[in-house]
Amino acid sequence: KIKLPKKTARRYPAYELYLYGEGNYAKENKNLLLTGIPVLFLPGNAGSYKQVRSLGSIALRKAEDVDFKYHFNFFSVNFNEELVALYGGSLQRQTKFVHECIKVILKLYKDREFAPTSVAIVGHSMGGLVARALLTLKNFKPELINLLITQATPHVAPVMPLDKYLTDFYTAVNNHWILKAQELRNLTTLSVAGGFRDYQVRSGLAFLPRSSQHDSALSVVSSAVPRAWASTDHLSIVWCKELILATIRAFFDLIDENTRQITEDPKKRMSVLNHHFVRHPAKMFEENPEAFTELTGTSTWITVKASKWTYSVYNDSDGKYFIFPLASHRKSYSHVYCENTLLDTSSWIYGCMNSNSPMCLEATDLSWRAELLPTTKVVMLKLQDHPSLSHIVVQVPPTVGNKYTLDCEFFQEDSRTVQLPVTHLFSFGLSSSKILLNSTGLLYNVQLQHFNRIYQAFKIYIEGHCQSLKERKPSVYRLHIPWSHEDSITVAKVPSLTEISAKLHIAQPQNDSRIPELNIYSSSDCHYEVILKTSLLQVLGQMIRFHAGALPVYVVSNILLTYGGQLSTLVSTGQCSDFSLELVRTAKPYKVEPLISIVVFLQGFNWFREIRESLSLPEMDAAVLSSWDAWFPLVSLILFLFGTGIAYWSGVFFSTSLRLFSSLWLTLMR
């Protein structure tokens, strides 16, 4: 526990600041003579300050690996496990306390050789929002934070807008970030969402507001993060080992060798985050990789003229270079695609400039254009974009004990891109779209046409048929959403039938015409059949995911309509009718639906919005959701019917419970 100034401790008696440590490191830092790089962890709603241990522990192991050349000091704030997602009154107080903590942390490093001038922050859930709110404080200096990583933080809006404090806090934070976007250029922000397993904060809310600065903010879903490729629930995002490793690796790559602190260069910070969280080339991060590489050694050079090539390596004691002349392929093919199942971090594919000999001594390293997938690393080049390349070279280094495969093929883009129109929402899974991929290529792109709204949800079945029964590498299926980093990856053994769910976290922006794709990284001797059907259950799931906050309102409106019916029968007949019977008689959608539709329509006019604001009425849920492209057709009617069902069965449950308990009570009293 870090001792705070008396004034701060008196003003915030419920809050505390801690430094994380374990083993010898903890003993050495008892006297707080710190020499590392400060990182502050902020827990979320009802979160514990002890959740920092996952980050702190793995960072310590990595520091041991580099003999403490660099290390991080992880601090954590104890917010007394306050329920800030349910009551927004504490958020402002938490934000001010974090500001005081940052000042205290930086004072601990005073007069050190490499003293930090800023702090990196990791915030889970509402802790990420508190970190963003620091910049709204009047006396806060933006240069005190250089990096902000948020985990499953609802940035766009509260999950449940339960009070005015919460909605006002969100409005203030988001407006400040939009208006002061230029001032925030030096702050690099990464938001990681949990994906479909996070039932508390849907990933669409975790994407930083679109109009905020693009060049220093990045939003990703954990299912798209290289080497994680998994969705996490709301709590496990804090201790998911693959995500923690990506975060800590990024922290170490962000260190500036001269200052021994996190780099001040925003471009380098973004390129490190892109390397670890968006597209990993299966190489260690280098800020400025060398433009040319010398291909030396006593390796054998082998020319390959075929348009399709496979090579299996096992205990290869001599290194080899396979050289592919491009001149003969440029007329017939548009792309070249290569893959390598050896998942090490060394360079393996190069491009030669105007080489006429069967050898190429100086080449450009194309391994930086590779992308890491769960079972392979792949490179795809458009030949037209590289007119100066005369050859492509694939290197097989001397290997002992490693068994892996290299594949390359030249192809025409049109032959590998197929279009699959998605089925209509109201087909209810009865009809399907089907396509057969007959050619024996290594890569297919299936474009899912008209898949752009969040209320669309499909099941995609991919069946692989292979010509021989030999052992082969698994196929990788990637659902690629081009307008946001929310890809999901499935690995399947072939031959097999694989089921993939296709649904969106964010609808297609209005000015974006790109099409979602299903990328199939296949085995060369396999055929695939792709069948797509609308999944009614998942459509309802999307509806609940986006509109669950409005459901209690519909339940209450059903109950109020029933009470109204009971009162009118009480007045007219002198008797109170049964709740369930009255609900069936009076709770009708046409008493609610037209009013909602009229208000949503009027919401489009400025004069109506001004009247609503002058009466201090809160913003309508329906209006907010239509502005995010998240308002479903018929959603209000469906929610009303859900509300009727919940109200009806709640009534049955309560009346049965009452009869049961009253009969027990009578028996005991007698």
UniProtKB/TrEMBL annotation:
Q: Name one GO cellular component term.
A: endoplasmic reticulum membrane
- Its membrane topology, per UniProt? Multi-pass membrane protein
**What is the designated name of this protein?**
GPI inositol-deacylase
**GO MF term set:** phosphatidylinositol deacylase activity
Biological function: GPI inositol-deacylase that catalyzes the remove of the acyl chain linked to the 2-OH position of inositol ring from the GPI-anchored protein (GPI-AP) in the endoplasmic reticulum. Initiates the post-attachment remodeling phase of GPI-AP biogenesis and participates in endoplasmic reticulum (ER)-to-Golgi transport of GPI-anchored protein.
Domain (GPI inositol-deacylase transmembrane): residue spans on this chain? 550-668
Bilayer-crossing residues are: 622-642
Question: Which InterPro entries does this entry report, sorted A to Z?
Answer: AB_hydrolase_fold, PGAP1-ab_dom-like, PGAP1/BST1, PGAP1_TMD
State the Gene Ontology BP annotations. Answer: endoplasmic reticulum to Golgi vesicle-mediated transport; GPI anchor metabolic process; protein transport
Q: Return the EC number.
A: 3.1.-.-
Keywords on record: Endoplasmic reticulum, Glycoprotein, Hydrolase, Membrane, Protein transport, Transmembrane, Transmembrane helix, Transport
Compartment(s): Endoplasmic reticulum membrane
Sequence ranges assigned to domain GPI inositol-deacylase PGAP1-like alpha/beta in this UniProt record:
34-253
Q: Which family does it belong to?
A: Belongs to the GPI inositol-deacylase family.
Q: Does the keyword Transport apply?
A: yes
